[in-house]
Design goal:
Layout: H1 13-22, E1 39-40, H2 51-67, H3 71-74, H4 82-94, E2 101-103, H5 107-118, E3 127-131, H6 136-148, H7 153-156, E4 157-160, H8 170-175, E5 181-187, H9 199-208, E6 212-216, H10 228-231, E7 235-238, E8 253-256, H11 301-317, H12 319-341, E9 349-350, E10 363-366, H13 371-380, E11 383-384, E12 386-388, E13 392-395, H14 404-419
Parallel strand pairs: 1-11, 3-4, 3-5, 5-6, 6-7
Antiparallel strand pairs: 2-8, 7-8, 9-10, 10-13, 12-13
Bound molecules: pyridoxal-5'-phosphate.
Family: Belongs to the kynureninase family.
Function: Catalyzes the cleavage of L-kynurenine (L-Kyn) and L-3-hydroxykynurenine (L-3OHKyn) into anthranilic acid (AA) and 3-hydroxyanthranilic acid (3-OHAA), respectively.
InterPro entries: Kynureninase, PyrdxlP-dep_Trfase, PyrdxlP-dep_Trfase_major, PyrdxlP-dep_Trfase_small
């Protein structure tokens, strides 16, 4: 059964239920642990726990119990090869060859190791181009890398400005790809507005100018299909705990285009050694001739079980199907907000680009006033959204486990919160984690 297009949407409760009835991915919801009596809309920050992740983590615990050190070679997935196996598993989800992806580190660690490989200031090319809307963490790390090279941070980190404080103009990014830029690091998706950048186009323009380009894909892998090889990006990195649902702080991933396999990992460690020789314990480091060369330490195998289970779910549903449903759900949310919440006194705005090619899996609901207190009221009603200052409520309807009815419920609860002015009873003071 085909789901109706946006031109056929209506705002009734029955319609929401009928969409769930026709949803080909609806049964994947049963594969997750859902928080009791809550409507979880924060899977873009931390995905819910897949049942298969619990099973895989339990298996790893049992292997540790029964085999001790033997698990490195004799476990169901030998721990020694676990990271490479997860790389092979995720490769089709990101459009890469199995040898180009490895599970390792975490986003920030991988950012550091990749930038120390690819940032080689030389001659007139000495600067890093990034953007002022990136998750500040990435800019901190880039600043650290520049300072480690003994260069001045102010002069060497160039940030693409945003006209509206929400989105980036790709033309502007391209204009700033000047001859003094050695490396470009951009997010695939802006964490606040949810704008999805055109990775293929930006990569092409960077390469025309002889600039290396890498992407932080934390907010797109698991929600959007990637074609790293086809787009020809130089490298990419991402976490596994947002749309991939692998668990809090679970190991991340990195992609290295195979033409760069001979480059040196900037943060060398023994897990990046040629696998067959790692235990020879030679004093000379010999880097693996694939993405595995960018590993540093022994992988955290217990947490890696979470990755194994989660990837199985994403592969079973299919990333193209996930994207299709995700776009349909966000389209439906945009429709309901426009229909029911855009006029005074509701006054909500959509801060995410409306074109489907320019958004990822979440929608930024904005309101000039009281957004923080409204978010608090939503939490009081059992919703789990998240808030990003100054005025953005992020809503992520996740294709694998959220329902259209939950989206309908959210919009109707927001309407009620404004109708009754109940948000006025919540303070404007922010808590530590939002
Ligand atoms: C989630 C996210 C991170 C998280 O970094 P960790 O090292 O996993 O804490 C970093 N950058 C971006 C853009 C993110 O969205």
């Amino acid at each position: 059964m085909a789901l109706p297009g946006a031109d056929k949407f209506v705002s009734t409760h029955e319609f929401a239920q009928s969409l769930d009835g026709k949803d080909p991915l609806h049964h994947f919801r049963e594969q997750f642990f859902l928080p009791v009596d809550k409507i979880y809309l924060d899977g873009n920050s931390l995905g819910l726990m897949p049942r298969k992740s619990e099973i895989a983590i339990q298996r790893v615990l049992n292997e540790w119990k029964s085999m001790g050190i033997g698990g490195w070679l004799n476990a169901q997935i030998p721990w020694f090869y676990f990271s490479e196996r997860m790389g092979e598993k995720i490769a089709p989800i990101v459009g890469a060859k199995p040898s180009e992806v490895v599970m390792t580190g975490t986003t920030t660690i991988n950012l550091h190791s990749l930038v120390s490989t690819f940032y080689q200031p030389e001659g007139a090319k000495t600067k890093i181009l990034a953007d002022e809307l990136n998750f500040p963490n990435d800019l901190y790390a880039l600043g650290g890398q520049i300072q480690m090279k003994g260069l001045n941070l102010q002069n060497h980190l160039v940030l693409v400005p945003s006209e509206d404080g929400k989105t980036l103009d790709e033309q502007k990014i391209i204009e700033m790809m000047t001859p003094d830029i050695a490396l470009i690091i951009l997010p695939s998706v802006l964490y606040r507005s949810g704008q999805l950048l055109n990775i293929a186009h930006l990569t092409k323009e960077a390469h025309v100018r002889n600039i290396v380009i890498g992407f932080d894909c934390c907010h797109s892998v698991g929600a959007v299909p990637h074609k790293f090889d086809e787009w020809d990006v130089d490298f990419a990195f991402w976490c596994s705990y947002k749309y991939l649902n692998s668990g809090p702080g679970a190991p991340g991933f990195l992609y290295i285009n195979e033409r760069h396999f001979s480059k040196k990992n900037g943060l060398i460690g023994w897990f990046g050694y040629i696998k067959e020789k790692q235990f020879d314990m030679a004093l000379q480091f010999e880097q693996a001739n694939n993405a595995g060369g960018w590993q540093i330490s022994s992988p955290g195998i217990i947490a890696a079980g979470g990755v194994e289970g989660a990837l199985e779910i994403t592969l079973a549903a299919g990333i193209e199907q996930i994207r299709k449903k995700s776009l349909h759900m966000t389209e439906y949310l945009i429709f309901l907000v426009k229909e029911l919440l855009s006029q005074d006194p509701y006054s909500f705005m959509i801060g995410t680009p409306l074109e489907s090619t320019r958004r990822s899996g979440h929608i930024a609901l904005e309101r000039e006033k009281d957004a923080y207190r409204i978010n608090k009221a939503l939490i009081h009603h059992g919703f789990i959204p998240d808030f990003r200052p100054p005025n953005v409520i992020r809503i992520a309807p996740i294709a694998l486990y959220n329902t259209y009815e939950e989206v309908w419920n959210l919009v109707h609860t927001l309407k009620q919160i404004i109708d009754t002015k109940e948000y006025l009873q919540f303070s404007e003071e922010r808590s530590i984690i939002s």
